[in-house]
Amino acid sequence: MRRRRLIVAVWLAVAAASLFAAPQVGSILRAGGFSAEGIEAQRALARYERHFGAVGSPLQIVFHHDELTVADPEFEAGARAALAPLAQMPEIARIAPYWENPAQVAPSRRTAYATVVLDTDPDFVHQIVPRLRERLGATELEVHVAGAAVFYADIQALSEADLQRAEAVGLPFALAALILVFGSITAAGIPVLAGGVSVVVGLAALWGLGQAASFSIFALNVVTLIGLGLGADYSLFLVSRFREELAAGRPTPDAVVRTVATAGRAVVFSGLAVLIGLGSLMLFEFMMLRSIGIGGSLVVVIAVLAAVTLVPAVLAILGPRVDRWRVWQPALGPRNGWARLARLVMRRPLPVFVSVAAALALLGAPFLNARLSAADGSVLTAGSPSRQAFDLLREEFGDGHAAPLFLVMQFPDGALTPDAVDAQHALGRALEADPRVARVRGVANLDPRITPEQYRLLYRDAPNVGGPFARAAAAELTRETAALMIVEPSVPATSRQASELVYAIRAWRDLHGLDLLVGGGPAGMTDFVDRIYTDAPKAAALILAATYVILAVLFRSLVLPLKAVMLNVLSLLASFGAVVLIFQDGWLANVLGFEPLGYVEATLPVLLFAVLFGLSMDYEVFLLARIKEAHDEGRSNTESVAIGMERSGRVVTSAALVVIVVSLAFVTADIVLVKALGVGAAIAVFVDAAIVRALLAPAAMRLLGRWNWWAPSLRLGRARPPA
């Protein structure tokens, strides 16, 4: 109150300064983030680079023509014309055209590609892709650029476009929803102001931290979604409480103090719950999840600070003028309808609780059939350049060509000794017989007509290998004690069959005692999913335990927090089930404008749990805070629940509406992962606010009776004996 103008001035100055840094956040965002040193695929890559040299950052320049084939001079001339300007780019280490390697020509002979290896920081190689595309020479061929760096370049471009679209759609609709709630443009503008400031300052802070830490491209939209949702949500609670205090006849200074002491306190505890959820992402080894955890935690802190400093300062300046520029006159204060609903539920608490809980469990049941996988090019829209290249390569070369497995074997006595050749031949023959394998390349798998004895003869004088074909294979696929085998799956890298193939190769290795590591796309995806869901139970346990402790301190009860946590988990499970039905099985795919993935991206359930557990807990916290106020006034358990519902019903519904509007704005995203996060958030918040809070919470509190308020007297205040 005393320094209200100074506080507003400081916040506006910080926001103005952030406007210069926030647009630069894309420059610090890194590609990848889906690998960790301990996983086998990464160890295989390290072994490969130790023996065969650094992989670099390979791209594929793909050429296609509907009529010409690679044998036509016009085709090669067009490819040479497209590649010629790239030789002048200092970032390009080498170019391997298709005419030097027949494996780079598709069976149709109408598609071929050149491999371009970039010599630059792999974390930022995606930033070179737009310039590389511009440098390609003019040609009559259809030309695409493919590869991991291109995928991440399109992810960044689409993320920034998605963000602008979400803000352009979400903020006006959020403002319209707030005007509907408050009836006043001034009151509605405060949450929009706080949400906007939280995002701008949060992105600027992310840019600052990015000078010293790694942040994934995927962090951008998640951080913005959290900042907009929480910034507006928390401010709405404070503005609503302030107007309620003014309507009760309190002068502005007392109304501000009372608002911060009640709604502000709940905001801080709610923010702590969200912070714990996002902080749990830092337990994971993968940069993609850690960066979202750090960036999300940062914006949560900023949103809470804005709610308990900027918003009260603005309210203190405005006072009764908070209702200026009134559009319509909504009824202020409690609504009796919420109290009537609570009393109706509490007359038959057991049937209500069982039926609603069973319905939510049924909604969550599809999650039992979720197929988890890492993302590939299919998470982008069909019109994005890298998706077009991805689809063309799969169609022309097969599912496994662009993402093969590589097996790096170690033989202490030499990679071409008789025993080593026999082991490689046996493994290669087993793989060739597997229907999940399209092609195997190894020194002992050159031709199915060659016997093991003949292979031993071919390589007996190594390194002087007889026969030009075998000599070329040995030069490419062996290094003294190390041997390389390339395996092209016949199934998509994201499929369950590809993961099973990885497990089968590793089982063969263990059975036959080979010193072999499996790497490559399918292996990396398999290891990524396995490691995430090895660490996920620890993260979930941390979230549940820490949230329980925070709520126990806030409500001075050991039972209420347990009930709140259990109900929140139930609402999230319903959201998980809906995400599986929509994004794996394709329900509403035409409405939402995407192609079904056939799987759930592996990080999505983790992100939803970490982000939404705290976010959807907001409504339970604010409901229980009002119930506790009534209980502390001496009301009975039943009356406290009815009064708490009456006092919080309208504002919690309004807050949920704002978050749902903001979340649905991200449904317009071109990246399926971001779209899924928006849909999951909207469903979880709707279920929590409309079903759990309105039906399950009062039913559970009625069933528990005075046990709701039980706590040991020595730790959390005076014990309340259960009825």
Features:
3 domains, disordered C terminus, alpha+beta, Alpha-Beta Plaits, four-stranded antiparallel β-sheet, 23 helices, five-stranded antiparallel β-sheet, single chain, 723 residues
Set out the fold topology.
Layout: H1 4-21, E1 29-30, H2 40-52, E2 57-64, H3 73-83, E3 92-96, E4 111-118, H4 129-135, E5 142-146, H5 148-182, H6 185-209, E6 215-216, H7 219-247, H8 252-279, H9 287-318, H10 336-347, H11 349-364, E7 372-373, H12 385-397, E8 405-410, H13 418-432, E9 437-441, H14 452-458, H15 468-477, E10 478-479, E11 482-489, H16 496-512, E12 516-520, H17 521-555, H18 560-584, H19 589-592, E13 600-601, H20 603-632, H21 637-665, H22 672-704, H23 713-716
Parallel strand pairs: 1-6, 7-13
Antiparallel strand pairs: 2-4, 2-5, 3-4, 8-11, 8-12, 9-11, 10-11
Helix pairs in contact: 1-6, 1-9, 5-6, 5-7, 5-21, 6-7, 6-9, 7-8, 7-9, 7-21, 8-9, 8-17, 8-20, 10-21, 10-22, 11-18, 11-22, 17-18, 17-20, 18-20, 18-22, 20-21, 20-22, 21-22
Molecular structure report:
Helix 1 runs antiparallel to helix 9. The chain has three domains: 438 residues, no CATH class; 98 residues, Alpha-Beta Plaits (2-Layer Sandwich); 103 residues, no CATH class. Helices cover 62% and strands 8% of the residues. Strand 10 and strand 11 form a beta hairpin. The chain is α+β, with helices and mostly antiparallel strands and 723 residues long. The chain has 23 helices and 13 strands. The C terminus is likely disordered. Strands 8, 9, 10, 11 and 12 form a five-stranded antiparallel sheet that branches. It has a four-stranded antiparallel sheet with strand order 3-4-2-5. Strands 1-6 form a two-stranded parallel sheet.
